[in-house]
Amino acid sequence: MRDPAPPTDTSEQQPEPRRTSAGKLMLIAATAVLLGVLMIKHDLSTDSGPPPQPMPAAAQPSTPAPVVPSASSASPSPEQGSPVMKRSQPLRIKIPRIKVDAPFIGLSLDASGVLQVPPPADRNLAGWYQDGITPGARGNAIVLGHVDTMMGPAVFWGLGSLKPGDTVEIERFDGSVAKFAVDSVEAFPKDDFPDERVYGKTTDAQLRLITCGGVYDKKSKDYKDNVVVFAHLLPPT
Q1: How far is CA 42 from the centre of its chain?
Q2: pLDDT above 90 covers what percent of the chain?
Q3: Where are the domains of the chain?
Q4: Within 13 Å, how many C-alpha atoms sit on residue 64's CB side?
Q5: Dihedral in degrees, nearest 10, Cα atoms 17, 18, 19, 21
Q6: Rg for the chain, CA atoms, rounded
Q7: What is the pTM assigned to this prediction?
Q8: CB 193 within 8 A of CB 186
Q9: How far is Cα 96 from Cα 207, in angstroms, rounded to an integer?
Q10: CB atoms closer than 10 angstroms to residue 172
Q11: Could you give the CA distance from residue 89 to residue 140 in angstroms, rounded to a whole number?
């Protein structure tokens, strides 16, 4: 396993994901992420499945979620006063509340257009969509990790227990640290995932942490839900 090379694009503007032969834009990449990243499989060897994991208090948003602009919309103008950092590769993620301290690996789409997932052999490893936004730059940075593997709980096992105001720190290649505050933690059924809300363009720097959660289906050996942490970049101190 090797860390990806530092990005050469230092633009603060949100890059467009690659186009498919059908000419669709960012929502296709979002769908690929939905199919490949979010549906993280767990080929567990036990019939009983994993032990219960921490989950958000509510399995669904209590109020209708706002719809963010799609990639085909005009690029939004920056919000006044919103902190934004230059593009720089993430190296390590720390979440003090749940004692996460893990390195990153860059993830890309495979030949079939599905986003690859971190190797399950390393339980303490987070992945980021390296063809998208880097954490701290303007837009939604996508970070994912396994909730468990055959060896037991993994890096994002406690993700569902985070609360608004908890912090996420991401050390970056340029020596800076992007510090985010959690806005909400929610669970969504995998067959009704709000890809527009999770992946759509934003005018500020935001972060999405994603893992599996909810009821474990012993037949498919997979979880039925995804846990998503929504967070925004804090001003530098």
Answers
A1: 18
A2: 49
A3: 26-43+85-233
A4: 3
A5: -150
A6: 17
A7: 0.71
A8: no
A9: 16
A10: 22
A11: 14
Three-state DSSP class for residue 30: helix
Residue with tokens 């920056």: 78
Asked whether 115 and 37 are in contact (CB, 8 A), the reply is yes
The conformation of residue 38, written as its DSSP 8-state character, comes to: I
Phi, psi of 161 (to 5 degrees): -90, -5
**pLDDT tens digit sequence for 55-81:** 665 433 322 233 333 333 333 444 555
Three-state secondary structure of 118-178: CCCCCCCCEEEECCCCCECECEEEEEECCCEECCEECCCCCHHHCCCCCEEEEEECCCCEE
What pLDDT, in 10s, does the model give residues 224-237? 899 999 999 999 87
Q: What is the dotted CATH code of the domain comprising 26-43+85-233? A: 2.40.260.10
Amino acid at residue number 49:
G
The amino acid at 129 = Y
Are the CB atoms for 159 and 134 separated by under 8 Å?
Answer: no
- d(Cα 237, Cα 234) in Å, to the nearest integer? 9
Tell me, rounded to whole angstroms, the distance of Cα 137 from its chain centroid: 14
Burial of residue 58, with CB atoms counted within 10 A of its CB: 0-12 exposed, 13-18 middle, 19 or more buried? exposed
Enter the tokens of residue 190: 């995998």
Q: Work out the burial of residue 82: count CB atoms within 10 Å of its CB; fewer than 13 is exposed, 13-18 middle, 19 or more buried.
A: middle
